[in-house]
Specification:
Length: 230
């Protein structure tokens, strides 16, 4: 049985995992989960992921949620070498640090500012903007301290897959990242050096760009957490 990924076409965590599948050359089936109709909130989906979140990996019956865990699993199980997830403890610690930073701060702040008001009844506030600046300041500093081409070293790792998808949310709302020159340079380099991976991300970015201009109508949704725009 091939690998199945339950994903959403404009979801940054899904797009991060899709880049790993592409990079590793893994045959897989993509099952699109329809966020708009709340397919991920059904009891059937909860059997796959009790958190009712997308993505979920199904590797021959082995079910795994949380995109960071999925990336780590795919790289460890299927990586031909250890480039995208180094075995050396210090190099791996830096990758893990970036993955944690993305989950706790970078993607969190960026998605709260960019995506939440796109889909739900939230506003972009000065506090949200401040947090986004903090996220970018932090990442710019990490790039400076490391002094390498990519987020955790000279070559792309699974951390870049996440950080790139988070950064594209800013591009989708036409947010200028040039005041963070190292982030901008890293992002541009990634697009240039990894066009096939970037294409996966870009497709999601275009969808978000369209939603930014024409917000989706989710008024029918009964969301357990987010206020729905009526
Ligand atoms: N920490 C999770 C987050 C996944 C996540 O938040 N996915 C979004 C779609 S992009 C989702 O399923 N949200 C559920 C909802 O808003 O109802 C991961 O990295 O996999």
């Amino acid at each position: 049985m091939p690998i199945t990924l339950y994903s959403v076409s404009d979801g940054p965590p899904s797009l991060a995992v899709r880049q790993a599948l592409e990079y590793l050359g893994l045959e897989h089936k993509l099952v699109n989960v329809d966020f708009g109709i709340g397919e991920h909130m059904t009891e059937e989906f909860a059997q796959k992921n009790p958190q009712k979140e997308i993505p979920v990996l199904d590797d021959n019956g082995f079910l795994l949620g949380e995109s960071n865990a999925i990336l780590q699993y795919l790289a460890e199980r299927y990586g031909k070498d250890d480039t995208i997830y180094p075995k050396d403890p210090m190099a791996r610690a830096v990758v893990n640090h970036r993955l944690c930073f993305n989950l706790s701060t970078y993607y969190r702040y960026i998605s709260e500012y960019t995506l939440a008001p796109m889909f739900f009844d939230y506003q972009r506030t000065p506090l949200g903007l401040k947090k986004t600046h903090i996220a970018l300041d932090n990442f710019n500093t990490y790039l400076k301290l490391l002094g390498k081409k990519y987020a955790a070293g000279e070559t792309v790792t699974i951390a870049d897959f996440q950080l790139v998808t988070a950064t594209m949310c800013l591009e989708a709302i036409n947010f200028d990242i040039s005041p963070w020159p190292l982030v901008k340079n890293w992002y541009d380099t990634y697009k240039l050096e990894h066009p096939t991976l970037w294409k996966i991300v870009e497709e999601g970015m275009k969808e978000l760009e369209a939603f930014e201009k024409n917000p989706p109508d989710l008024s029918h949704m009964d969301h357990p957490i987010h206020p729905v725009r009526k």
